[in-house]
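lol forgot to send this yesterday, sorry. struct tokens for the thing we talked abt
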């Protein structure tokens, strides 16, 4: 089904129908240049475990990713680990030089919890870890680049995992203690914070399946317990900042949610219902409690998990309840909607789902099947298809559902298998930025865009096989040499001119320095 087809504006009553002003996925040539708002900001993104290396340097503790990647046999596709990664623990000055070359307004990075608190607990602070991030932040500020700091991007201290990690409610306090150490040490210079990166990926990937550490594979139970604790931990860190630090430090704090766009596979009522349910199970599970007026988990999620649990003989819903005070505590706990947006999926619900999923399981609770369209360009990551209008649609949907919050696109990017001439990344970048401009024109309050990633890095269980970087990193070279790809030159020009020009070609691109 061509999902970007132009429809009659008067029919605009279903989330997946396309407003008339959304552009087709057309070729790059002969498209008019478009200007971004003057105050629109551009950055790139990374995370600690994926780039830093130095996994046991200078007193750092062990994280769940150190444990997972050192398992024998390895769960990682190419058997690799983040032990050295892009070695940003040592090469941070070169990283900042690259930010400067691109002309970034800001850089989004994350802090390694066990580098700061080796045991996971805040009674013992590792000064070498504090120094590392102080140096990075100071180097960025000296070069005019603002830090956007993610407190938690998946590398939980192993000690906390031994206690159950995100399924033990005690994590709420320990996460807040950790956040407080960061506010105390970096809040004089960091004015924008993300509490947690992609709650759904943490809970479904780590607890409901084996796609991410800690590989617990406890679907139907694990992801829901994780979800509640994570929402409360986020909210508690937000409230702490709001009450104790905001006045003095004058910053903003929010959460980053991964937003797939979901589109019904056919026009059938069942597929449309399945699509709405999927939105509420996937990103609505986190967005609704935080950003909706009424708060709490979405109705569709509560109803379906409750009904399945009862049917299966559970004494209570496998989805824990949020109390009245918890609902109030979580509601409104984000100064902006942090959105990581990459791709789109088609959703269906029909008799073929019978017996398809384990019982109980998250997918059985949801009762939906997924597919894609063969015409969508495919990235190096199996899940990554290029569907630019999906980004416009999710931006407009967030604006509509949650009363037009400021939206920060905290990740968006394209993977290849390597090479400096990355014309497919350039096409993706331009088409997705075009989609952002469509959403802004239609009234969505998008404030900034962050490309994932500044450089190639450890792509979790895919190891180093998928490359998301604007800069190539030579992982065979002990110096981890970084070289700008063609896309770096394109992004630099977009940032310099605040203009999307589909015809721009970098002069003298020889695959060398910028
Ligand atoms: C994000 N999906 O993860 C993470 O925040 C990054 O650490 C990661 O490197 C990046 O995106 C690229 O994968 C995602 O299946 C993983 O849609 C999978 C999906 C989305 C985001």
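and heres what i got for the seq, position by position
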């Amino acid at each position: 089904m061509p999902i970007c087809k132009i429809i009659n504006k008067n029919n605009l009553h279903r989330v997946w129908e396309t407003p008339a002003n959304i552009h087709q996925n057309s070729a790059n040539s002969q498209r008019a240049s478009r200007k971004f708002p003057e105050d629109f900001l551009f950055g790139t993104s990374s995370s600690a475990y994926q780039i830093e290396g130095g996994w046991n340097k200078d007193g750092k503790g062990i994280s769940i990713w150190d444990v997972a990647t050192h398992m024998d046999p390895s769960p990682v596709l190419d058997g690799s680990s983040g032990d050295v990664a892009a070695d940003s623990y040592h090469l941070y000055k070169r990283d900042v030089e690259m930010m400067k070359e691109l002309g970034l307004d800001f850089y989004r990075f994350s802090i390694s919890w066990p580098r700061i608190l080796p045991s996971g607990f805040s009674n013992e602070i590792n000064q070498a870890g504090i120094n590392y991030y102080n140096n990075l932040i100071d180097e960025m500020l000296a070069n005019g680049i603002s830090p956007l700091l993610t407190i938690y991007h998946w590398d939980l201290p192993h000690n906390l995992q031994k206690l159950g990690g995100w399924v033990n409610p005690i994590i709420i306090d320990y996460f807040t203690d950790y956040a407080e150490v960061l506010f105390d040490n970096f809040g004089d210079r960091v004015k924008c914070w993300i509490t947690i990166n992609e709650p759904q990926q943490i809970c479904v990937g780590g607890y409901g399946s084996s796609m991410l550490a800690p590989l617990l594979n406890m679907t139907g139970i694990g992801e829901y317990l994780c979800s509640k604790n994570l929402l409360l931990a986020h909210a508690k860190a937000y409230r702490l900042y709001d009450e104790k630090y905001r006045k003095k430090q004058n910053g903003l704090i929010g959460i980053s949610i991964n937003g797939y766009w979901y589109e019904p596979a056919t026009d059938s009522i069942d597929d449309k219902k399945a699509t709405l349910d999927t939105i509420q199970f996937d990103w609505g599970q986190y967005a609704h409690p935080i950003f909706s007026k009424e708060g709490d988990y979405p109705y569709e999620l509560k109803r379906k998990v409750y009904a399945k649990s009862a049917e299966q003989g559970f004494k209570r819903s496998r989805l824990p309840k949020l109390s009245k005070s918890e609902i109030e505590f979580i509601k409104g706990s984000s100064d902006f909607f942090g959105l990581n947006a990459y791709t789109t999926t088609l959703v269906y619900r029909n008799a073929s789902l019978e017996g398809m999923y384990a019982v109980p399981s998250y997918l059985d609770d949801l009762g939906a099947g997924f597919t894609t369209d063969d015409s969508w360009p495919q990235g190096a990551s199996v899940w990554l298809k290029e569907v630019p209008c999906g980004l416009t649609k999710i931006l407009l949907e967030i604006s509509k559902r949650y009363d037009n919050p400021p939206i920060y696109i905290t990740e968006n990017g394209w993977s290849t298998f390597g090479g400096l001439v990355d014309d497919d990344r350039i096409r993706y970048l331009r088409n997705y930025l075009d989609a952002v401009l469509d959403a802004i024109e239609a009234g969505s309050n998008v404030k900034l865009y962050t490309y994932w990633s500044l450089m190639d890095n450890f792509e979790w269980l895919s190891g180093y096989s998928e490359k998301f970087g604007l800069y190539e990193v030579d992982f065979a070279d002990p110096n981890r040499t970084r070289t700008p790809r063609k896309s770096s030159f394109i992004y630099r020009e977009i940032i310099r001119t605040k203009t999307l020009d589909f015809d721009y070609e970098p002069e003298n691109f020889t695959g060398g320095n910028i």
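The radius of gyration is 22 Å. anyway ping me if u want another try
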